[in-house]
Design goal:
181 residues, Rossmann fold, binds flavin mononucleotide
Length: 181
Amino acid sequence: MAKVCIIVGSRRNGNSSHLANILKDRFKKERIVSYIITPGNQKIYLCTGCMDCDTNGHCDFKDDMSENIDKILDSDTLIFITPTRWNLLSGDLKIFMDRLNPLYTTKKLENKKMVSLVIGSKDKAEYSTEAALTSLNSFADSSNMRLIYSHQFNNCLEGTDILDKQEEIDNVVCELIKIIK
Ligand SMILES: Cc1cc2nc3c(=O)[nH]c(=O)nc-3n(C[C@H](O)[C@H](O)[C@H](O)COP(=O)(O)O)c2cc1C
């Protein structure tokens, strides 16, 4: 049975969270197990860059990352959903990614499937979500995950704007179910 971790880069009950919940509901109908992680609502210490994990393969901080890492290890696919912030990924996701370094050093992210979904308030023509996508995708590349799907949702400013894009969401969900299952 396919298992998926959906990592949500916004802590507000907005577009990223709505999209994550829709994915989880639709996956459930297809018997795909999914966990939603919202790092911004958790206790996660900032990586100090001590590099101990490079030698011993784990981080000495005791916080919510221990459980997150168990979920990631248990998943075949990681779906990152980020709001665009200053054309980049959200800070919450960056903090989360830094704390995944123990899985990088032990090569435990290698060959996991990765999906990047980016949401921004501006029009596609402004390329605002493009760099946010690039920052997520370069994480997939550096950690040797297999980037299997990406999508950018534009013109989502208010927290429920994405719910007006049912057809676009449906297409994304159908594609994801095909490649994740
Ligand atoms: C600090 C900050 C910076 C933002 N920068 C951008 C940006 O560069 N480009 C853009 O299209 N939207 C930007 N936005 C808007 C959000 O990406 C947009 O409202 C998104 O839908 C928020 O997702 P959420 O509802 O999941 O929080 C920014 C929002 C915040 C709070």
